[in-house]
Amino acid sequence: MKLVLASSSPFRKALLEKLHLQFETDSPDIDETPLVNESIESMVKRLSESKARALIETHPDSLIIGSDQSATLNGHVLDKPGNYDVAFEQLKAASCQSITFYTGLCLLNSRTGKAQTVCEPFIVKFRDLTDNEIENYLKTEEPYNCAGSFKSEALGISLFESMQGTDPNTLIGLPLIQLCRMLKENGQPVI
User: Fold this and answer.
1) What is the pLDDT of residues 135-181, one digit of tens each?
2) On the CB side of 155, how many CA atoms lie within 13 Å of its CA?
3) Which domains does the chain have, with CATH numbers?
4) End-to-end CA distance of the chain
5) pLDDT value at 93 more than 90
6) Which of 121, 125, 139, 160 is most solvent-facing, going by the fewest CB within 10 Å?
7) Which of 100, 21, 123, 96 is nearest to 63 (CA)?
């Protein structure tokens, strides 16, 4: 079966390339509006599956990978900042605090219509950040399209005190340990 990544994210594509698998990418077009009273865990699972299901017609006989991520700081959902000012405020608020990332993952077998879906949490504790450190970081890396306003796979790691989770790839947006398990269960082991 073909493997399809339902994403236009260069970060997710780079993560999947680490597994040395042949795959295609295709960008799903779905409504990502949260449902009323929907928990963040339910939302990322629903959106992951919706992204995969959006490609079922154009990719028959495929295993389609959908993923979605959201983050919270003190109970507030963090969006991608989009610009310097919002990113500065997000990192200022994160200083000495923890951000919890929730990454939804779905592996959909388009032949059977069966989907496996999980939500993988990952917690990042930030050290005490000065305004100068935040400014220098943002001017160096410009992480304005990243939830939480940092790139953990690059200089953003210098902002942290600790990380807690089962798979560091989850933080970047694609839980590879869970994906390897799902692929194996679908008769497509990675190695």
Assistant:
1) 999 999 999 988 889 988 889 999 999 999 999 999 999 999 999 99
2) 12
3) 2-185 (3.90.950.10)
4) 16
5) yes
6) 139
7) 21
pLDDT computed for residue 57 by the predictor:
95
| Dist. CA 148–CA 144, nearest whole Å | 9
Question: Is 26 a known active-site residue?
Answer: no
**How confident is the model at residue 147, as a pLDDT?**
84
Burial class (CB in 10 A: 0-12, 13-18, 19+), 99: buried
Among 26, 61, 68, 131, which one carries the catalytic annotation? 68
The rounded distance, in Å, linking the Cα atoms of 51 and 57 is 12
What does the H/E/C string look like for 72-112?
EECCEEECCCCCHHHHHHHHHHHCCCEEEEEEEEEEEECCC
- Is the full-model pTM beyond 0.85? yes
Nearest Cα neighbor of 170 from 12, 27, 19 is 12
